[in-house]
Amino acid sequence: MSCKDHKKCHTETHTFGTDDIATSNGIFSLVPGENPIFDDVTCNHNKTLIDILSLSAGVLTITIRTRGCHGVITEMLGSGLRRVFQVEDFESLTINSQDTGAVNVIVQKTFCICCEEEKEESSSSSSSHRKYQKKGSSKCNRWHRPHKKCKCGRAAK
Predict the structure, then answer these.
(1) How far apart are CA 78 and CA 54, in angstroms?
(2) What is the pLDDT of residue 134?
(3) What distance in Å separates the CA atoms of residue 76 and residue 90, rounded to the nearest whole number?
(4) Cβ density class 64-100: b for 16+ within 10 Å, e for less
(5) Which residue has the higher pLDDT, 155 or 59?
(6) Which residues, other chains included, contact 135 with Cβ-Cβ below 8 Å and sequence gap of 6+?
(7) Closest listed residue to residue 6, CA positions, set 89, 109, 116
(8) N or C: lower Cβ tally within 10 Å for the chain?
């Protein structure tokens, strides 16, 4: 089922960073150790393209966390090299560096937003649905709670 199958849903694409290194939009200074770069704290279902260019002299360890399918993706990236990842349900990007350095990062996230006015459910409703609602509030992404079953490119059974 796609985002557009729902009447009150639409897709959005947000992009952070640029290929134009001269603008420094997307360039992160790295210190030795773990460097958090990007955190997605929403529960929106998303497809995310992550483009990373190492501007550091040493080897970097890239860690991408997703909700569900692959959980954690860990890759090594050498000096001056570029790597592009496309992931589903992106959660965070962390780069571990041995030395000080820099990295250029472009993150393009396409996600689904669903909002509708909901009424408080009756006491006979399940508590799992009630915890996502408040009387008179607008609740977004009700149907995008974390997936129980991962499909990861395979046809649904």
Answers:
(1) 7
(2) 36
(3) 19
(4) bbbbbeeeeeeeebeeeeeeebebbbbbebbbbbeee
(5) 59
(6) 119, 120
(7) 116
(8) C
In degrees, rounded to 5, the angle at the alpha carbon of residue 31 between the alpha carbons of residues 37 and 61 is 60
Mean pLDDT over the full length of the chain:
75
pLDDT in tens, 10-56: 888 888 887 665 666 789 999 999 999 999 888 888 999 999 999 99
- Tell whether the model's pLDDT for residue 145 goes beyond 60: no
Which of 53, 28, 32 lies closest to 97 in space, CA to CA? Answer: 32
Q: Which residue in 110, 117, 120, 157 sits closest to 3, CA to CA?
A: 110
Cβ atoms of residues 57 and 99 within 8 Å: yes
Sign of the CA dihedral with 23 first, then 29, 34, and 39 last: negative
Residue 4 DSSP SS3: helix
Non-local CB neighbours of 111 within 8 Å, separated by 6+ positions: 11, 12, 13, 14, 42, 44, 45, 46, 47
Instruction: Determine the distance from the C-alpha atom of residue 1 to the mean position of all C-alpha atoms in its chain, rounded to a whole number.
Output: 20
